[in-house]
Amino acid sequence: MPVLFLKSIPMNKEEIIEALKTIIQPYSEEVTALANINENTDFITDLKINSANLVDIVLDVEEKFNIEIDNDSMAKMLTVKATIEIIAQKLEANAGQ
């Protein structure tokens, strides 16, 4: 598994999930689903997050990981797994600059 870098700090998938959990927490009242968040977690179905809050989450992800997420990528960010993949792609692109 590739190591991801956030401001020169290597991050693994579990660390990204923990960061996402912190970002998502204010937008979801599904305490049990949030506590058990994993790659298969769906933001809308499992966490009951509405589309307006999904936009807020994307903005928070951009700020936390110091990345820019385009509209096409944003549209794919419906599950934790897809979000991790997009964050990884953006971090790798930033590292290559």
Question: How would you portray this structure in words?
Answer:
- It is a single chain.
- This protein has a single domain, classed as ACP-like (Non-ribosomal Peptide Synthetase Peptidyl Carrier Protein, Chain A, Orthogonal Bundle), CATH 1.10.1200.10.
- The longest helix is centred in the last third of the chain and has 16 residues, at 80-95.
- The chain is built from 5 helices and 2 strands.
- The protein has helices at residues 13-24, 31-35, 51-65, 71-76, 80-95; strands at 4-6, 9-11.
- A two-stranded antiparallel ribbon has the order 1-2.
- The chain is globular and about 40 Å long.
- Residues 5-9 have low confidence and may be disordered.
- By secondary structure, it is mainly α.
Brief rundown of the structure:
This protein has 97 residues and is mainly alpha-helical. The chain has helices spanning 13-24, 31-35, 51-65, 71-76, 80-95; strands at 4-6, 9-11.
